[in-house]
Each structure stands twice: as structure tokens, then as C-alpha cells.
Amino acid sequence: MKLVRWLIVIGVCAWAGQYALALVLPNLVMETVYALGGKSIGYNQFVVNRIPDEASRSIVRPSPDLLYAVCLYDLKDGPLAIETPIAERYWSLQFYQMNTDNYAGVTNQRAEKHRVGSTMKMTLISRDDDPTTYGGTVIQSPTDRGIALLRASAIGNRAAQQAALDASRCHPVD
Amino acid sequence: MLKAFIKLTAAAIAIILLSGLFLARNITSGFGTMAERNGDWETNISTGSQDAGVMLKAAVALGGLLASTQENSMYYRLSTVAGEPLRLNCRYKIEGKDYNADWWSITAYGWDNYLIPNAQKRYSFNNENLIRNADGSWIITVAATEQPGNWLPVGSSGASRWRQFSHQDFDLLLRLYTPGVAYIQRPQSAPLPIVTQESCQ
After folding, report:
1. Could you read off the pLDDT of B79-111 as tens digits, one per residue?
2. Structural domains counted in chain B
3. CA distance A95 to chain B (A)
4. Is there a contact between B180 and B100 (Cβ–Cβ < 8 Å)?
5. Prediction pTM value
6. Any chain B CB within 8 A of the CB of A32?
7. ipTM, 2 decimals?
8. What DSSP line would sit under B76-140, residue for residue?
9. Phi-psi label, residue B146: left if phi above 0, alpha if psi -120 to 50, beta otherwise
10. Which of A44, B36, B124, B167 has the most neighbouring CB atoms within 10 Å?
């Protein structure tokens, strides 16, 4: 009888425990990706990846139809300036905080088509910074660290998209 | 005293292990009950968003890290056809046309969530590289053996087999970039490709 009681308590705690695990899992995965990524590509700079194939195993479900550039950012020493030319075909810049939320993003599609041909310049600031003290486009990150991810179409002739990603910069504000 | 400590420690370890198993079961079944179903495809409009629930965020962290919110892209996943998990010994037909999005693609992923190794180095088809019929419609054949036309090769995943928790050998992911309003407002009824199982060996 005592054993059954133990088993019931363990079962109920384990059932509730899965939600506690689920709560910490996104941060755990992001911290791992951030730490491992930082060791190989560094922080506060865009690094352009080759087109994903079967050997691309750092991030799950990469798209083989996209070019990616990633900036693992850390705002503890101040804001970052991001400059990126916007190619004609599909392009987007998405920002992720350390719990995996895609908290901000810009694209060159539909209502944002007017961006094509321009160079996007923005300032990425921490949650403690005052956005009104910066001019232009300002993105406020909910966490000091996070990931900025550029995606550009790799379909067909991708020379322009590749050039746009290669020319993208993510660096401390001067 | 020591006996009680050992009992509590054993119980704590059992709880952690079981919690992990419950969680793995919950999230390796895909979006499961968190999903909007559209035929055999399933999606979740909260993917990537700050509004996503705890389980969805955990599922995305493991199976779709750095997914965008629906305004940028929508993801429909298909892991079963008529209730049967996708198998490497079966051949599947995907029939479709064009969809209201700036561009779209269909990619095959192994059960390990990575691109499937294959000699052709073909992992997906998109709206531009398909061979189409005169009316613009198209058919993709998904199979492990060579097929005429738009053949999407599948095969063994790159990870060790003992790590496989999922029922299916692989799955298909439809990406719709900058999707039209129908997908955002009515994801369960917006037009999608039809997938059928043709044969199994």
C-alpha cells in the first residue's frame, strides 16, 4: 500500500515536472546554441553560412532554399549597429531572445517591399536603454543576449542575395 | 535516516527521468494537441511568438529553433498520411498548385530534424524549381528509390537509430513565406498540397 502511494506521488510529480522542464528547455537549448556558436563564430558580428545540406547540423530544420547569416549578440557593453543591404528577392532579419521568442523582425516582402535596394540601418539596444536617445530604427532586445538571423532566398541566381549578406554588419556602436 | 534519504533521492531521480519521458513523448509527437490541423498537415499559429504556450516553446526549441512568427513565415508539418506515419519503404505523391505566399517550399527532414543524406543532394522543392503540368499544377514523388519527374529522395536519417523517439521515419515541412491572409486567419482550411500514399514494399 505504501509503495502504491509512493508510485502515485512520483507519477503526479513527474506529470507536473514535465511542465517545469518544458519551461527551462528553450533557454537551455538557446544557451547551448549561443555558447557553442560563440566558440566557432564569435559574437557581435554577422557570419554568413553556406547553403544548408545534410552536413548542416548546428540548428535543426535548416532550409536548403535559404542563405543564412547569423549574429550572436551581446549588449552588455552597449548597443550594436546593424547595417544590411536589402536584395530584391526574399530577405528578412529576425531577432530572437534567449527563450527562443522571435520578438522583432523586418522583411522586404508585401507592405515592406519599399525597402528593396536600400540599406537597412538600425540600432539594437538592451531593455535598460532608452530608445528615445537613439535616432533611426531602434530595436529593443528583451534580453542582453540573443540572436539576429538574416535569411535571403537561395533560389535561382543568388549572387545579389549572397552579396547582400556578405556586406551585412553587426558591430558595437562607435 | 539514511534509508529515508536514499528513498527520497531515488524518488527525485525517478521524477526527473519520468518528467523527461513525459515531455519527450509530448513534444516528439509534433505539435500534437497544440496544432491546427488542415488535412494531414498541422501548424501552430503561435510558433515563434511570445504568446506561444510552454509546451509549444519546448517543441519549437527542439524541433524548430529560430522559427519565425506567422507574419514572416508559416510552417505546416506532415508526419502521417491517413493516420499512418511516413515510412521509408513507402512511396508518396504530393499534388499541388501555387499558394498565396511570396514563395514556398516543401522539404523532407529525417526523424532527427535534419536534412536527409542522399546522393542527389536534393532536399526540397520550391515554387520555382518544380516541373509543372501545362495548367501550372505539379506532382512531387517522395520515395527512397529513384522516381521520374519531381523526385524528393528520402532515406536514413543522419543520427543514430537508438535516438529515434518518433513514430515516423521522416516528415515533410511546407514553408510559406509572407503568407496570405487565408493562412494566417484560417490555417485549418487554407489550400494546401494533397499528400497520398501510393504503395509500400
Report:
1. 999 999 999 999 999 999 999 999 999 999 999
2. 1
3. 9
4. yes
5. 0.89
6. no
7. 0.87
8. EEE-EETTEEP-TTEEEEEEE---SEEEEEEEEEETTSSBPP-TT---EEETTT--B-TTS-EEE
9. beta
10. B124
